[in-house]
């Protein structure tokens, strides 16, 4: 279970829902060969449970006429009740299945007829990854360096962002205390220590401010510079809270 | 498995060094300050030391002096955010084998560590 979670954290997770695993085993194997993490659920209820307990499923491929909950009811529940928004593909047994009006209201991203060219399905899934990469980057931070160190390990990146949030907040708090105590030598040391944290999230204004505090600042400059550093940190923190709500940053 | 002692006080740098070096197949031991590092060095043997220069309690320079006097066979790589030439030269004059600036390039770190441990 722990290994599964780790794999799911690192790979694009796909949940395939079908009452008969044999019918979708080839599809599942093919997607695994393409580097995706694939899991199987027999019913919509089982799928909902998996979405409730596991993060990381980006794609849901679900049998249209699954019972007791069909594809549309399952997708609707996951999106409205669980507030999760997987790319949703309805698996049809044959082309042109009639969709009743109420089902049309459920936002389905794609339909796929079992047995059709699998590359079309794969292309839709790949497009999502490209869209993810094109998401507008915050001007206050970047995770490119963290991706480079970890070969894009999601767990590492998120833990590093949490560490940034907690450790820099603590260190900036220390800076304010040292200003009050007029301990300028210690202020320079703390700024020197914080500098690589800003560098690792590629906030170069923060890096410059740390350098200025460490090497150049006069006694009367410290208060102003530390305030500027805190403002920069708060901007990063706000952007992280928006981009990573799952991290529950304070 | 080669054992590396990392002496560093920035939590993010520690995490990234631990991740990268462990992935490269090394046993990584962390000391968050100079005092803890001295204790570990007296208790166990290490194949390589990676150390910051600005450390709490015992400075990087004091630590380097201790290692060069008592454990001269153990190579040292200095990790520092400083690119000031005088600081780098001082470290080399004390006998350290290499110098890497933070944040480090993962490939550069791997190559430099491998070179010293080969």
Automatic annotation (TrEMBL), chain A:
InterPro entries the record matches: CheY-like_superfamily (IPR011006), HPT_dom_sf (IPR036641), Sig_transdc_His_kin_Hpt_dom (IPR008207)
Specify whether Phosphoprotein is a keyword of the entry: yes
Q: Which PROSITE patterns match?
A: HPT
Q: Which GO terms label this protein's molecular function in UniProt? A: protein kinase activity
Q: Where is the HPt domain?
A: 153-243
Sites where Phosphohistidine occurs are at: 192
Q: What is this protein called?
A: Hpt domain-containing protein
Q: Which organism is it from?
A: Zunongwangia mangrovi
UniProtKB/TrEMBL annotation, chain B:
Residue ranges annotated as coiled coil are none
Q: Residue ranges of the Response regulatory domain? A: 3-117
Read off the InterPro entries from this record. Bact_response_regulator (IPR050595), CheY-like_superfamily (IPR011006), Sig_transdc_resp-reg_receiver (IPR001789)
Q: Which SUPFAM superfamilies match?
A: CheY-like (SSF52172)
In its keyword annotation, does this UniProt entry include Phosphoprotein?
Answer: yes
Q: Which residues carry this modification: 4-aspartylphosphate?
A: 52
- Report if keyword Cell inner membrane is assigned: no
For this UniProt record, the keywords arranged alphabetically read as follows:
Phosphoprotein
Note the Gene3D superfamilies from the entry.
3.40.50.2300
Biological process (GO) annotations held by this record are: phosphorelay signal transduction system
Task: Name it.
Answer: Response regulator receiver domain-containing protein
């Amino acid at each position: 279970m722990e290994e599964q979670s780790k794999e799911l954290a690192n790979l694009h997770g796909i949940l395939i829902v079908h009452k008969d695993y044999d019918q979708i085993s080839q599809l599942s194997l093919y997607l695994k060969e393409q580097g995706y993490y694939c899991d199987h659920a027999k019913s919509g209820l089982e799928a909902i449970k998996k979405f409730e307990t596991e993060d990381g499923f980006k794609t849901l491929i679900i049998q249209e006429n699954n019972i007791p909950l069909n594809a549309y009811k399952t997708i609707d529940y996951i999106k409205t009740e669980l507030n999760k928004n997987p790319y949703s593909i309805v698996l049809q047994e044959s082309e042109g299945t009639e969709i009743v009006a109420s089902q049309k209201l459920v936002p389905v991203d794609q339909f796929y007829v079992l047995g059709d060219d699998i590359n079309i399905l794969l292309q839709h899934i790949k497009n999502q990854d490209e869209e993810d990469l094109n998401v507008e980057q915050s001007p206050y931070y970047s995770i490119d360096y963290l991706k480079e160190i970890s070969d894009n390990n999601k767990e590492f990146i998120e833990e590093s962002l949490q560490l940034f949030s907690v450790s820099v907040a603590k260190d900036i708090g220390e800076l304010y205390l040292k200003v009050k105590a007029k301990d300028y030598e210690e202020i320079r040391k703390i700024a020197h220590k914080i500098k690589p944290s800003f560098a690792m999230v590629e906030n170069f204004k923060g890096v410059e401010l740390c350098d200025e505090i460490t090497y150049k600042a006069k006694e009367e400059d410290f208060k102003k510079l530390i305030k500027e550093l805190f403002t920069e940190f708060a901007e990063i923190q706000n952007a992280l809270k928006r981009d990573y709500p799952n991290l529950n940053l304070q | 498995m080669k054992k590396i002692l990392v002496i560093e006080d920035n939590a993010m740098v520690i995490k990234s060094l631990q991740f990268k070096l462990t992935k490269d197949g090394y046993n990584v031991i962390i000391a968050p300050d100079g005092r803890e590092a001295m204790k570990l060095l007296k208790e166990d043997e290490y194949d390589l030391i990676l150390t910051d220069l600005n450390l709490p309690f015992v400075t990087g320079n004091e630590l380097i002096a201790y290692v060069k006097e008592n454990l001269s066979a153990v190579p040292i790589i200095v990790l520092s955010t400083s690119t000031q030439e005088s600081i780098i030269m001082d470290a080399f004059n004390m006998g350290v084998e290499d110098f890497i600036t933070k944040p480090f390039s993962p490939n550069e770190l791997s190559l430099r560590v491998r070179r010293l441990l080969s």
